[in-house]
Specification:
Shape: rod-shaped
Distance between the termini: 32 Å
Number of domains: 2
CATH class of the largest domain: Mainly Beta
Structural class: alpha+beta
Low-confidence stretches: 5-10
Mean pLDDT: 81
CATH topology of the largest domain: SH3 type barrels
Helix content: 40-55%
Order of helices and strands: HEEEEEHHE
């Protein structure tokens, strides 16, 4: 449990990042921008200046003033892999717990040894949940 919490804490970025970090973004990068009213805009990065950031969303182009931007996040495939690994780890832990409790009881009662099912189902479930979670890395966070 401590390992899982340590992995999650390592992935969290709580410090403010400078606005200049947006220069590393390239046109077409998938980003998510959260404004001060907690509205989220997802789309592709178009440009940024000292005063605003612009992106193309499904509803069309959006430009958000720098003063209104709370956070800018970049979609990252490496975070998705991390989420899958964490999900698989949780699935293994759940599988072991079920095997050592309910599995022991069922093997005593029926004599049937289908231990693999007690591992495959939770590993697949939690690994799939980890893969389905969108993976974003914070590029800019307002102070």
């Amino acid at each position: 449990m401590k390992l899982i919490l340590a992995l999650l804490a390592a992935g969290l970025s709580l410090q403010a990042q400078p606005w200049d970090a947006l220069r590393a973004l390239g046109a077409g990068d998938r980003i998510k921008v959260t404004d001060n009213a907690h509205r989220e805009y997802q789309g592709t990065f178009q440009a940024s200046s000292d005063r605003a950031i612009s992106l193309e969303t499904r509803k069309g182009p959006v430009e958000i003033e720098r003063a209104r931007v709370r956070r800018v996040e970049l979609r990252s495939s490496s975070r998705r892999l991390r989420n899958v690994v964490i999900g698989v780890g949780i699935g293994v832990a759940v599988g072991v717990a079920v095997d050592q409790t309910l599995g022991t009881f069922l093997r005593n009662e029926t004599g049937d040894d289908k231990r693999a099912l007690m591992y495959v189902a939770p590993i697949g479930l939690f690994g799939g949940i980890g893969a389905a979670l969108p993976a974003y890395r914070t590029i800019y966070r307002a102070r």
